[in-house]
Batch of 2 targets.
Target 1
Amino acid sequence: MRTLFDQDPSPPSREPLEDGAVLLRGFVTPDAPALIEQVTLIAQQAPFRHLVTPGGHTMSVAMTNCGRVGWVSDRTGYRYDPVDPDTKRAWAAMPRVFLDLAARAAAAAGFADYDPDACLINRYVAGAKLSLHQDRDEKDAWAPIVSVSLGLPATFLWGGKRRADPVRRMRLESGDVVVWGGPARFVYHGVAPLKDGDHPLTGSTRINLTFRKVF
Ligand code: SIN
Ligand code: FE2
């Protein structure tokens, strides 16, 4: 029999961030090994790379994609591309386990029938960061972003709808999922420089899956 004293160390919990945004702690913890296995397969087909921004800056986060289209950046701008510019091939199909989890997380946040067509996969090593930004390259301006954290913990930056708005700092652990859509869809967010560490699942890295409904 389970008692108060032998519960999971961190059972799933739900922290509303604002209207349209929620942090689901531990939501994918049981599936994390299977997700990492899929990331390894996807990266064999489309290796992680450091994209260059239109301003000529090489990003510290390494990226790859799966799904119908992938998010890419180069000197000409940001775009969703059905073809990986590095390999000239289509991106790997989105694994069933990705789609299922993304839809379950979106539903838990109040967004029914989520059907993402893109999954950006970010890989952080110590020092890598993502400056405050909005996700605004998608045609669908209501469907949520579903963001899954795996491996080393990170400090997530959660701002407002204007770049200058105050920013909250939240620790994201492996298995946590942040969902933001509807009225919160264009909130500025980012990731502070990753701290050194060693994680049983991902070694010295953090992996983030970011699902988007592009079209
Ligand atoms: C992103 O904004 O695309 C990624 C966020 C994260 O790595 O948690
Ligand atoms: Fe983002």
Target 2
Amino acid sequence: MDRASACGAEGCAFESRRGRNILKPRRLSIPSFKWYEIYAMISLATPIQELKNVGPRNISKLKKLGIQTVRELLWHFPARYEDYRDISTIDSVEPGQKVNIVGNIIKMAIRQIFPRRMIIVSAIVEDDTGRITAVWFNQPYIANTLKEGVRVSLAGKVTLTKKGLQLSSPTYEKINTQYFEPQLKHTGGLIPVYPETEGITSKYLRFLIKPIIDKINIPDMLPGTVSDKLGFPDVSWAIKNIHYPSTLSDAEKARERLAFDDLLLFQFKALLERRKINQYKSIPVPLEAELIKEYISKLPFELTGDQKIAIYEILKDLEKSYPMNRLLEGDVGSGKTVVAAICALETVHRGYQAVFMAPTEVLANQHFRTIRNLTYPFGTSVALLTSNSSRINDDIYKKPALKKLISEGKADIVIGTHAVIQKDVKFNKLALVIIDEQHRFGINQRKALVRRTESVPHLLSMTATPIPRSLALTIYGDLDISIIKEKPKNRRKIITRIISPEEREEAYNFISSQVKNGRQVFVVCPRIELAKKEEGGEPKKQTKMDSIWAEVKAVQEEHKKLSGEIFPGLRVAMLHGKLKPKEKQEIMADFKNEKIDILVATSVIEVGVDIPNASIMMIESAERFGLAQLHQFRGRVGRAEHQSYCLLFTSSGMSNTRLKALIKHDDGFRLAEQDMATRGPGEFFGIKQSGMADLAMASLANVELIKKARATARALLKDDPSIKKLPLLKERLDQIQKLVHFE
Ligand code: ADP
Ligand code: MG
């Protein structure tokens, strides 16, 4: 196909909506060099504005899709394919079918229907077996392109009308008979359908991409020996075949190779990060088995096997003279705190300091109490430093005084919110940093802590997000992982039920009876939906304050209802983001001391809160929460031997797939798998921001591919530690690094 006809067919289709006289053919500027010369000059780095047919308006639209260079254009992969592989003969088509036909135009007509001002272009197309009419609505420019005598390929759906069979608004493409084999980009074979945005259609993307991939030379970042060994095609083949495969299995092969590239880069990044960490010095904390046994024997319960293994793994890391970088993963209520506490005790015993960082004030306070109780027999000094409290053991200090004591090493374990990583907090001999619920902290915060001191402290992060190990290796490839799967022995399965509006009464009675038996209750409600639009005006922008207010309001209303109408005889309190930190602390302390029966709260109680006597988690409008969050809420109960219940109040009584999954599985790891399958791992783990490409993200379930990528990265790095022999790969790595930095 030559340039002029390509533009005639396509260019006009995009330019003509601008309200010019659309019936008049657009004048084409004929470039001074031939099309093949232009495409030969294009490289991956070419900015898209240098491409023909990318006008200023499209540049910004393409940018929205993340496309600014030819590379990004070619790496914008189809979401699926339309299958037009078989060319049908006209006599064989039937209504309802999607078909691809090839024939000659024997008659064109254009007419206007007045009442509706609709313009209809119709073409009668003939092949050896028959004729069919194709019609297009309000696209008069088509008549400029498709003329009588032109050979054309049409793809679309067949409909039956009064006048017989028709193809309505088919995709069309002129076939230049000068070529023996038509190279079709919109109508023949498997046609790519791209993720689109407003104003950028798949057709337009095909129009941009196809001529480039036919001509461009794509340098391969993966050495040929490696792809051969792994049975992967080279990158040029992969790019061609992900856009225009001959078969779906070729498309799959291409996709796998390209996903591999992304996973490989991720593994490289992780290994390099790890190598960097291993070069730092940190304080070795020698393990003293007898002492650990003593700590464990003083606990009020017996540790699970997994807890013991985790403690051992962490203590073994602490012995090393380079920093630990370990993730402790365990479902809600699996007992991570005690594991961390024992490791902190060992650190203190050797004369060093440990920091324990929690994501919220409420949690920092709770950890302070827990750790204080646990370490009391050993004379450990435990400090609490949040925006609102500063104390060591039972002594309250002014903040500057406390910070001074910390810097002099007078506090052994320092517990706090992000206040503890502020620059003005100095330590005397910090050896261990523990970060609870690490997914709540940004990577940068983690780094801030690491950069603080001369010797880099050992780092233990803890999370209740149950990330399958293979996935964790990819996302957090620079971490070692300990997993607690086993629940403490005293636990019973939490009974989870959906409560329909008719069952409310009964459920409230049940709650009363539980309270009469001495148990306590959490109530969580979603924020009240704010009006999305102001009267007749622009959509209202929601600020963070707005959403806090929306939560507070919901809690206040629920509190009023429960304390006034439903449980007038019970002690009902509320906890929300508008309370002062001190008020929050008092309420949590009262709840812990059983002075409150029912606590109505916002999602602040989502993480970490530990009230073993609470046996009911009641969730209002449960259908409005995500699965991971619901599972976290449920984890607030069932933390001791009492039979516990999670009551999912719904407004319709209907259950959705999430609620059904929640009832079926009480194991967070199983739920994670389920949720990942429906929402994709990126959404579930909130790692959209990790700089990982969509394709790699989609391949996270492909454990084999991840393993291959890991092994390959290892081998390549071992052979070539400074990545001198792989300049293209190095370049890609640097690009990713930049991306991650700007988040
Ligand atoms: P999470 O892993 O969610 O942070 P916590 O550390 O808060 O869980 O522990 C939940 C509760 O289980 C706490 O009350 C803790 O004292 C208790 N616990 C921890 N380990 C055990 C165990 N092995 N046996 C019984 N109870 C335990
Ligand atoms: Mg916890």
